[in-house]
Amino acid sequence: MTEHGRHGTSTSAVRRYADLLWDAVLRGDEYTAVDVVVDALRDGVEAETVLLDLIGAVQQRVGAEWAANRISVAQEHAATAINERVIGTLALTRGRSAGDLGRITVACVDGEWHALPARLLTEVLRLRGFTVDYLGAQVPAAHLITHLHRTGPDAVALSSSIATRLPTAHATISACQAAGVPVIVGGPAFGTDGRYARLLGADAWAPDARTAAETLRGGLPAPANPHAQPMDDLPHLSDQEYTLVTRNAPTLVATVTEKLRERVPAMAGYDDEQVLRTAEDVRHIVDFLAVALYTGDPDLFGDFLDWTAEVLTARSVPASVLAPTLELLGAELRDFSRAARLLRSAAAARAAIDHGAAPASPPTPGADDAPLHRTGRPA
């Protein structure tokens, strides 16, 4: 018996086309990628399935392959660009829908460059009968609010992939609600279970585009607390630790990077580029520390460090460098009770892992030997 997908298309056919699309984007072959999507539609694969189970699945694979160091940042960027063009082709082939289910504004949080999930949601909503204003990547809150006053949508769908954007997301959610427009949020930044969506007072959260479309079809109620302020949701912010760590981040990064030279002997031979990249990666750690202070959730910081260790290991860089970095940060922030406690716990956890881990294998020929290499997600 043939297994079938959501709309009767065989799962094997969907997988076959997904594999063909993956092969095309990996080779940077835009024309073949377009042909794959067109062929899938002609073969009876629903447009929504093409969007989410072909294009969306391939994009998720791109991220996983980058993290595992099996594709480069350049390949990741090229694949994303091709997927964007493929979505555009699909949109042109299906034509314009009536859009009688209501008007939705879809946007990415300011500072969020990962726009493809929002674009996928946009096309799914259009397929389902919504009128959608797609505003794209990193939309400043002030411009978003101006747009809401001008167009009067039924809801805003806000997307973010990186947790460091949560403070900005919080301000944007509050601003939209103050304008009388409810907000549904989605993306990895809000947690796999939507915990940060609830923490920041969003009106709804969806783990994927299909759920978001179904939720919006039912309609979102008017914001319950349109005049809420960040301190109302997060009273621990009164200690000012998040604000002070964020404000002093450049100094923290410079100091820790310099002191790492004493803790990591290999840094004595680094050129300017290697030192610069190390400082960039220390900045990622400081940024995730700051957002953990903002949310009051130490697991956010711990999960980031675990992910970072996996990325470092995939690049043949010893993850043991994380522990001294955390210790140095802790020393600089010893007067910040929440930050110091979080850093002590994280450093102890990393040291325990390092102590029990097998010796790291030597770097592969040509591997970058900076102590922290590409801890941030691909842009």
From TrEMBL:
Domain B12-binding: 101-227
Keyword Metal-binding attributed: yes
Keyword annotations of the record: Cobalt, Metal-binding
InterPro entries, per database record: Cbl-bd_cap (IPR003759), Cobalamin-bd (IPR006158), Cobalamin-bd_sf (IPR036724), Met_Synthase/Corrinoid (IPR050554), Meth_synthase_dom (IPR036594)
Region span, Disordered: 354-379
Record-linked PANTHER family: METHIONINE SYNTHASE
Record's protein name: Cobalamin-dependent protein
Source species of the chain: Pseudonocardia nematodicida
